Amino acid sequence: MGFINLNEKTNNRSELFPKGTYEMQIVSVHGDASPSGHENMQFDFLVRKDLDKVSALANTNAKTHGRHFFANVWTAKDKETGQDSGSYDPADLANIADAIGLTQAQIDKYIKSKEDLMKACEGKFIRIYISVGENTYKGETRKQNSTFTNSWQKTKFPPQAAKKQETVEDPFKGNAGSTDELSENDIPF
């Protein structure tokens, strides 16, 4: 389901991700299809940079923060024919919805299509497990990263809510020349 971006060669970006659990942000999701027409949703995850000091993530987030990880969620294949069914496995969709924190009421009210679900995912923070395995293609075996929706979970580290800006008094209030006391003669134009 996932692959590395070999076009990014800096900061060990061409190396595999170490297997393990990662805290990610979903940057974007869009629909795509293979040349044969097998449909998928492509997820662009970003390894969170704000969790480097979390000891449980020392071998994952701390080593790879700021990197992108791409994963595809494919439509299910028909069990009898092996052909693309054109529909997503309901378990995959439920896992995604649960990981981004959608309640059943929200799903019933707002998610009417694949596009609605993809849009709901963008910007969300989730926890995923990335594995390392081997894949043989055209006689060549190579290691690759992958993730499956059954390992996607709600984040254990919600991002800090934006701090309320403290009200700062105007330091010039009441002083001669304060903007409260400007007259036409004080303006040079």
Automatic annotation (TrEMBL):
Compositional bias segments (type: Basic and acidic residues): 163-172
Sequence segments annotated as region (Disordered): 145-189
A Pfam family it matches: DUF669
Compositional bias (Polar residues): 145-154
UniProt superkingdom: Bacteria
Name of this protein: DUF669 domain-containing protein
Organism: Lactobacillus amylovorus subsp. animalium
